[in-house]
Design goal:
The complex is a heterodimer of chains A (388) and B (206). Chain A has 388 residues and is an alpha/beta fold. Helix content of chain A is 33%, strand content 16%. Chain A is built from ten helices and 14 strands. Chain B has a single domain (5-205), classed as 3-Layer(aba) Sandwich (Rossmann fold), CATH 3.40.50. The radius of gyration of chain B is 16 Å and the shape is globular. In chain B, strands 3-2-1-4-5-8-6-7 form an eight-stranded mixed β-sheet, sandwiched between helices. Classes of the chains: A alpha/beta (388), B alpha/beta (206). At the A-B interface, strand 13, helix 9, strand 14 and helix 10 of A face helix 3 and strand 3 of B.
């Protein structure tokens, strides 16, 4: 079941499942630009049932992709959510039809800045229109239409994935039976925008960025992208997690070098994170997607009143936060809960005790898995899906 | 299927029986959600819970219930008026910081209030204070003064006064013994204020 349909093309480049959408009806982006036709690359796991009522859409995070389960076609590593998805897992591929698509602006096959602009025959680069979380969700909705699914049993995802989940509920609420936004927020905070800006500046300061035209010029802004990743990676962890993992331990040496080598294990780790990231991610995609997150403010269209965004919602919600997550902290998640309470929505909210920081949603957290299992079981019961 | 009614805590059995089928219920301090689970299964109730302890919340959500982590003092303000048919607060009022505003909020968001609390007028409590001269520790109030969460004790009389002051009508009152079993007299009697270890009231707005 795990991505068996991926095969290597003669060029050695992995072929990914995709669909071309918007040929007849272009996608009108928040910026006003009309985009189309556009490609959405996606993966599915499990079988869609006869009445198409068991589909779960997973929305991936900033640097994630559609490969929820591995092996990843580029890195050959396990998928990013194997803790939660698979046979007998909370998102059980024996029960549910799991869909995950690469976001608009991404770099794993969906239309984005590194893909070819049909009008010029060259990679889009900075010609690519600025996109929003709403645009990502609008593109996903076209995919769900294409798959013939009227209503998704659940939409879930962590971090930027949670932003997409919330956007789904607000834009297309009648197509979402249940929603589990995890470690998310209804808006990107000033602190988060600030971190993103550091990352973008690192990329744009790399001489190889070439005003975003690096692909045409045959170079890659690897240093800049690696620094962006290193900065961001720190925000995904907690102080406690970093301390437990590395402390002040030195990297392969008995004493400090009195130089600027990676003396400390934590430095070496971050350098490694940065270096491996550039192999699988596009620098311009990083600019576009971080921008989309920065622009995200669910209440903005509703006079700043978040609860009005959820007025009339019939979706069942499960909000999950992690106690040591300082990037998308519990307080931000609780604001979503309070807004949902204000419209008397059906909502559960759990803060999971973990010292692993924001990344906890990607890691082995038995309590988290238990909560998601229970939530989905309860929803399956209400939706009339067979019990486990 | 959930556990039979008899397995629920005594006051929860009474509450479960009072609630009409197919209604909307908010259970504040729902613990692991035993009452909500029973009501959902047996009375098709659309139930929500609020629980302070994370263990309780995780257990409730893990069992498919809609429960949020929060408490009566801070998490009731957001709900709209008359969002629920019943708002339930069992054995929790005496542990809130501001019982009067909690009661007012419950009256705002629910059509009816069901509330149970330990009666500080119970003779066992009075005797312990009178004879021993120490803070009472009873079956209904099992913790010592230095570790109890109960900071606002009241007697049945006191509670009736608060209801009158906040414009709440007592529709039903049940006197319970120290095991949560109903006593042969109603909660609105001098007997109850002396002999009921706990009381359970259903209130509506006047």
């Amino acid at each position: 079941m795990t991505a068996q349909h991926i095969h290597n093309t003669p060029s050695g480049k992995p072929a990914v499942r995709n669909v071309v959408l918007g040929a007849d009806k272009k996608l009108r982006l928040n910026s006003g630009v009309e985009l189309g036709p556009f490609t959405v690359a996606y993966e599915t796991y499990g079988e869609l049932n006869a009445d198409k009522s068991n589909a779960i859409l997973i929305c991936h995070a900033l640097t994630g992709d559609q490969f929820v389960l591995g092996p990843h076609p580029v890195t050959a590593r396990p998928g990013w959510w194997e803790t939660l998805v698979g046979p007998g897992r909370p998102l059980d591929t024996n029960r549910f039809f799991i869909i995950c698509s690469n976001v608009l602006g991404g770099c794993m096959g969906t239309t984005g800045p590194k893909e070819i602009n049909p009008e010029t025959g060259k990679p889009w680069g900075l010609e690519f229109p600025v996109i929003t979380i709403g645009d990502m969700v609008a593109a996903q909705r076209r995919l769900i239409d294409h798959l013939g699914i009227e209503q998704l049993f659940c939409v879930t995802g962590g971090s930027m994935g949670a932003m997409q989940v919330l956007e789904w509920c607000v834009r297309y609420g009648d197509r979402v039976f249940s929603a589990a936004p995890i470690a998310g927020a209804a808006r990107h905070t000033a602190q988060n925008i600030a971190f993103h800006e550091v990352g973008r500046q690192a990329i744009m300061a790399d001489p190889n960025w070439r005003g975003g035209d690096y692909i045409n010029q045959g170079v890659l802004p690897e240093r800049g992208l690696a620094v962006a990743r290193m900065t961001a990676h720190i925000t995904y962890l907690s102080e406690a997690a970093l301390h437990r993992k590395f402390g002040r331990n030195l990297q392969d040496r008995d004493g400090v070098s009195y130089g600027f080598d990676a003396d400390f294990q934590v430095e070496s780790y971050l350098r490694h994170q940065g270096m491996t990231f550039v192999d699988r991610f596009d620098a311009n995609s990083y600019l576009y997607i971080t921008r989309a997150m920065d622009y995200f403010d669910l209440a903005a269209e509703f006079g700043g009143l978040l609860h009005q965004a959820f007025e009339g919602t019939e979706t069942r919600y499960c909000i999950v936060s992690f106690s040591s997550d300082w990037l998308f902290p519990t307080a931000e998640n609780r604001e979503i809960v309070h807004a949902l309470n204000a419209v008397a929505a059906n909502v559960s909210f759990v803060e999971i005790e973990s010292d692993k920081g924001h990344d906890a949603f990607l890691l082995d957290e038995p309590e988290f898995e238990h909560v998601i299992s229970g939530f989905l079981d309860g929803c399956a019961d209400h939706r009339g899906l067979p019990a486990r | 299927m959930t556990q039979p009614l008899e397995k629920l805590r005594g006051d929860l059995q009474m509450i479960a029986e009072m609630i009409e089928p197919n209604s909307r219920v908010l259970d504040i301090g729902c613990g692991e959600g035993e009452l909500l689970a029973w009501l959902g299964d047996r009375k098709n109730v659309d139930g929500r819970g609020i629980e302070l302890s994370m263990d309780g919340v995780r257990a409730g959500v893990g069992n498919g219930l809609s429960v949020i982590q929060g408490d009566a003092d801070t998490d009731l303000d957001n709900y709209p008026a008359e969002a629920f048919d019943y708002v339930v607060l069992s054995q929790t009022l005496q542990a809130t910081r501001n019982p009067r505003s909690v009661l007012k909020n419950m009256a705002r968001i629910g059509k009816r209030i069901i509330i149970s609390f330990p009666n500080f007028g119970y003779y066992g409590v009075r005797l312990r204070l009178l004879v021993n001269g120490r803070m009472p520790v009873t079956r209904s109030l099992p913790d010592s003064w230095y570790e109890t969460a109960n900071i606002h004790h009241c007697t049945i009389y006191d509670f009736e006064d608060l209801c009158a002051e906040t414009g709440l009508k007592i529709e039903r009152g049940v006197a319970l013994d120290n095991k949560g079993r109903p006593l042969p007299f109603g909660a609105r009697s001098a007997l109850a204020n002396l002999f009921a270890a706990q009381a359970l009231f259903m209130l509506s707005k006047t």
